[in-house]
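Regression report. Comparing outputs from two consecutive submissions.

Submission 1:
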Amino acid sequence: MIRDSDLPLAHVGHARSADELVSIALETSPHIVVLEPHMPGRSGLDALAELRPLQPGLRAIVLSRSDRFDDAERAIRLGVGATGSPSLSTPEDGERLFGLIVAALAVRVERARGERPPELGRF
């Protein structure tokens, strides 16, 4: 769905670990990342914490099955724009994720224009 969209995406990639996420992000400077807190090796939130000072405009959507409050609290402290379940088993789930990605890109554009972006929330 995302690859077939007409969004101006320069790179759509996949990282198998937090370290790979950091490596890819440093190489490609993405506008947005979709990640899970519990990735092989370090946490996806650890990767985001490492990337924040290097890429302050980076938007993040966290998908998590975790019901741990500390994961949600840390995601909020890291400025995550949206959270939700990674169970993308129906077309509607994919459409919601796609909508969050579009909204996150819109937030980036609005901030670049000096406008106040809307809250992305949960799905």
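Submission 2:
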Amino acid sequence: MRAQCLPLYSYAFLCYLLAKGLVLKAQRKIVQSIILLGLLLLSGQLFAATLSGVIYGGSALLENAVVTLLDAGQQPVAGKAPVATNASGAYQFASLADGNYYLTVTPPAGSGYGSVSPTLVALPGSDVEQDFVLVSGAVTLSGVISDHTGAALAGARVKAYQQVDTSWVQVGQEITVGADGSYEWSVSAGNYYLYATFNYSQVDLEGEPYSAEKRSADFSVTTNSGHDIQFDFVVLSGLTVDSNGVPVPGVELRTTKYWEGPESGAQGMKAWRYIAHNYAKTISASDGSYLMVLYPTDTCIGSGYYSSDADCLYDITIVPPSGSNFVQSYQKDLAITSDTNNNNIVLESGQTLSGVVRDHTGAPLAGVHVKAYQQVDTSWVQVG
């Protein structure tokens, strides 16, 4: 039970009386104390709601179920880590602002109970109790995330989504896989797809991109099921050199690609892949060598999803070292179906584009930012 207090306008009126000198001197300290206490109580009303409840496995209290609190956008709430239920099946999240939240429940591994998908809970200005009953008869959805060599990709993350009517909703928690690459959820029978992702800071992979994603096609789960996810990359490597074949270090290579298919499930959910080498992630070494992983283009072409094979090919932007006499250039329409080890990139020398920014009097105008854009086919892209 939280302390009750007057409406906010009551304290505003008391502040008005104080400001206008309409409160007797002997009463001022009393009024000031009332205002201070009221504001503290209001603060408690706004930011001290408690969301709690009990998790049951069938008719029994369920210990060690993991309850996760999500905000209105179904993202983890800052400072509110998932909690495990105690021996009485109880959980609690205290000191919450009023508003809408979502709760998910993940049963203990091997318990045989199903997970609870994100469930909306509103905090309307008072404490709320929300209990859940987990249904038995759950099955296991498990697998391993691996890289293109078949090695476990520790640090990658994976989510499972279940079809509910015409929507797809996340079940259980997102899992960051460990050294063995494995993941597992207890789920109810139904239709699912998996979504896996990583960025360069989370995995140890030679030639890794800034980020990569992969979604499976939908599939049906009726019994314990294994569904692995492999980031089926191929390796592109070579040297960055000048027109004389001399290695040029410090050259940045950028490319981004997304495509759907070719895999498609019975519910029409297509697989898709995404990869991004950007943000100065892929740069040639001191000997001019570079190495980057990419998805093979024949996978995209084989999907039949795109009207032109060219939609599946890579365009690589080649950014020379700052201060060099080389210009930004492009390797366009690159097809790659297997590891390619001698894709040497020759940098182009260019002319100097320079000038001075001046104000209306003709004086140089310091602090102005200038960008240059070059026409490439029918597009204009920033250079430098």
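Expected: both submissions complete independently.
Actual: both completed, but the second showed a warning that disappeared on reload.
Relevant detail on submission 2: The helical segments are 8-19, 25-47, 297-303.
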